Amino acid sequence: MGLLLITPLAAQPPIGTPDEFDIEYPDDEEPSAEQVALGKTLFFDTRLSGKQNMSCASCHNPDLGFGDGLEKGVGSDGTILGRNTPHLYNLAWNALFFWDGRAASLEEQALGPIESDVEMNLQLPELIKRLKAVPFYQKHFAEAYPDQKPAISETTIGHAIASFERTLISDNAPFDRFMKGETEAMSEEARRGMALFLGKARCINCHNGPNFTDNGFHNIGVASGDVGRAAVQKGVTTQGAFKTPGLRNVLLTGPYMHDGSIGSLGAVVQHYIDAPKKGGKLSPQMEKIELSDLEILDLVAFMGALTDPVPVTPAKVP
C-alpha cells in the first residue's frame, strides 16, 4: 500500500492511509482495554459537567460525525461558544489540539472543556470528588490504574478519556480501499476530484498526510474577528490563523470553518476560489485557483470518498 505522491511536485507531502503510520502513545505505552473502556464511560457521563446536564458526547455526538451539527458549540449553561465544534476522528496522529492549538496533548485537550467556565464548567477537584463517590468508578479506576495512587486523579481521568478518543480511527473509506488497489472503490467523479485535490485545486498544500491535515495554522480569509493562533503564539503569520482540520468524514461534520460560517462543502471550495482574489494577509498556501462548477462537484465527490463513520454505541453510565 504505497503512498501516492504528487507529480511532478514530488517535494510536496504525500497522502496515504492511516494504517501506514504508527500511533505515538504517551510514554510509548499503548493503553489497556480497561483504560479505553473507562474512558468511553467517562466520555458519555454527564457528571463531567457542573450542572450534570452535559457530557463530552453532547458536543461530540457519534451520530453527528463526533460534532454537534451546529454553527458554534453550546455550553452547559446555554452559552453560545465562539467556535465550531471540531470532530474527533483520527486525533491519535495529531500534535496540537483545539482550533488555536493551545493543547499539546490529547490528554490536555480532554480536560480543557471540563474546566472551561463557558463549556462544561466543572473544576477538576469537584469532578474527582464526584467520581470517588461512585462505586463503579472506584472499582474500575483501581483496576485500570493499579500503580496510580490515588487511582482517580486529573492524570488518570485525562488519560482514560484520551485513550478512548485515540480509538476513533477512520481508515476504511472508499479512498483507503482505492489506495490499497480496489480501483472501483471510488467513483469516476471522486477519482477526478482526487486529481484536482492533488494538483489544480492545490488542496494538498494544507490537507496532506493520511488524515489530510498538515497540523499547521493558516489564515484562509474567514473574517470572523477571532485572532486564532495569535492568542497562543504571537506573530504576524498567526493572526487569524486556525488549525487545518482533517478531512476524514468531512461529509458528516458540517457546518464548516472555525466559526461554522459555511454550510456546505461546495461553498467551502468556492471560498478557496474567492478568498485569494480579495487579498489580505492570507497564508501563502492560499494560492489563486480557478475551478469550473463540474470541478467543484468532483472535489466534493472526492471528499465524500473519505467517509468511513466510526460506529460507537453509547456507554452505559453508572
Automatic annotation (TrEMBL):
Species in which this protein is naturally found? Acanthopleuribacter pedis
State its location(s): Periplasm
Q: How is the cofactor bound?
A: Binds 2 heme groups.
Q: Show the taxonomic lineage.
A: Bacteria, Pseudomonadati, Acidobacteriota, Holophagae, Acanthopleuribacterales
Keywords, ordered alphabetically: Electron transport, Heme, Iron, Metal-binding, Oxidoreductase, Periplasm, Signal, Transport
InterPro entries per UniProt? Cyt_c-like_dom, Cyt_c-like_dom_sf, Cytochrome_c_Peroxidase/MauG, Di-haem_cyt_c_peroxidsae, MauG/Cytc_peroxidase
Q: Domain (Cytochrome c): give its ranges.
A: 34-135, 188-307
Chain segments annotated as transmembrane: none
Keyword presence, Electron transport: yes
GO CC, alphabetical? periplasmic space
Binding residue positions for heme c 1: C56, C59, H60
Q: What does this protein do?
A: Involved in methylamine metabolism. Essential for the maturation of the beta subunit of MADH, presumably via a step in the biosynthesis of tryptophan tryptophylquinone (TTQ), the cofactor of MADH.
The entry lists its GO molecular-function terms as: cytochrome-c peroxidase activity; electron transfer activity; heme binding; metal ion binding
Name listed for the protein in its UniProt record:
Methylamine utilization protein MauG
Pfam families in UniProt: CCP_MauG
Q: Which residues bind heme c 2?
A: C203, C206, H207
